[in-house]
Amino acid sequence: MAYWLMKSEPGAWSWDQQKKEGKAGAEWDGVRNYQARNNMRAMKKGDLAFFYHSVGEKACVGIVKVVAEAHPDSTDGSGQWECVDVAAVADLPKPVTLADIKATPQLKDMVLVNNSRLSVQPVTVAEWQKVCALGGLPHPPKA
DNA sequence: GCCAACGTTGGC
DNA sequence: GCCAACGTTGGC
Fold this sequence. Notes:
DNA-binding, globular, 5 helices, single chain, 6 strands, ph1033 like fold, six-stranded mixed β-sheet
């Protein structure tokens, strides 16, 4: 089991929309980047991920769970791209902003800091726990 | 709104 | 297979 971070522009797909999909979840579609696709292929059912709002807000706002492993992206006609399904699990009581992350020495190696353009990225256990703690979840959910 | 960084494309 | 040009992303 592993932890991840998935980015979305709120204008394209927001945390509110994700939550409306409920426990059944929704396709994380539209990813057209090989590294991000490979990360999704590595995901297992039950893995957890931060839901990050890029652009305006720049903060982790919630936690999602992988409910279906990689399958062809229904928005892609070429069959080349894949996606997973994710369902909202919990809000982060306090959104953890990019500035918060940069200001935290233990988080300086996060992919988010060093490769901000990668839309689906791995998160270590230590980073998971630290970001959850900053977000107001002293007992982070476990994948 | 600007610009730097990155990934992809296509000509050679 | 290399590299220049281009498009896109995302922080500021």
